[in-house]
Amino acid sequence: MAANEKITDIKSKGTTWILGVLASLVLFVVLILTQWWGREPIQFNILESAISQAGLVAPELPPESEDLEGGRGYQEAASYEILAAELPLGYTYTATLAHIADTLLNKSGGYITNDIAPPGVILDNITSWEFGALVMLRDATTALRNHFARDQSQSEQDPDLAVAEPYFYYEPNSWALPATEGEYEKGIQALHKYMRRLQDPNAVKKAQFYSRADNLWQYTEVVIKRLGDLSTRLSSNASSSNFAPGLTNLELEEASGKLAAKVGWMEIDNVFYEARGASWALLHILRAIKHDFHDILLDKRAMRTVDVMIRELENSLTPTLSPMVLDGSGYGLFANYSLSMANYIARANAAALDLRDIMNRG
Hints:
Blueprint: H1 2-37, H2 46-54, H3 71-85, H4 91-106, H5 124-148, H6 159-168, H7 180-199, H8 213-242, H9 249-256, H10 268-292, H11 294-299, H12 303-316, H13 337-360
């Protein structure tokens, strides 16, 4: 009898040990996936992406090109510039939007916002990043449909863009019937159809792209509102707690004429990563605008203004050293990531205001 009890006890301990090992392995895998899936996508070269999507192939460089002035790298860059000149107007801008959408769907971990199981369901930072990038993608696609691809307000809208835009406005957290990824993929396919028509001079219905000052001015108005909102939300946590300590929201409203809404402690990192995603997407969109609106920007002497916006957004994407979003005071021991991000975005917004005014002049 005692021997049977001893055997049962050994089996019980063995089962417990096995379950413990399995649970540890599962936890270890989840932690690894959390780190991998939670990474922000790297920046991409908009011209290389557009050339690749257009099917253009760079010529093979001879081995002796390494000995030429500037080296092989310089020669490759020059060949890309030549290929980029073959792209029709608007192709780079549209290809950039398609690449941004493709990145949302196919980055490490794929599209995570609509995940219903771990580790995706617990990754709130990368889902906030996705939402920020998605908002900028939607605005840029709307501008393409309503402004860039239309000659005037009474002209007919492009049929492929009329299909693409609504798909990107589908709810971002739908898991099935239909899944968000499937709807966004349809939007990408519609953008590719528009791009093929831009590239094909013999298309039955030729696609158009108009790089005019008034079109860019209308899009810049939207960008200003987006950046202003992000900057305010990023800085509101510090402004409500440090700017006037001891005052209630009502007293702040009476003193400044507006209500200071404090960002909740659990939402600070979400706002920060939403701003990071928006900055990442807008940075690539501005680079594409700089290419496709090159002539009008030079004519209006606005190229430097766009460069300022690009530089500030690049600075806003500087890698963070802390595993969590720090929220120290402005002159405290720890940095305040939200205030640093708000500073870069506010300066980009100031440049956007200048760009709007320049584009609005006759």
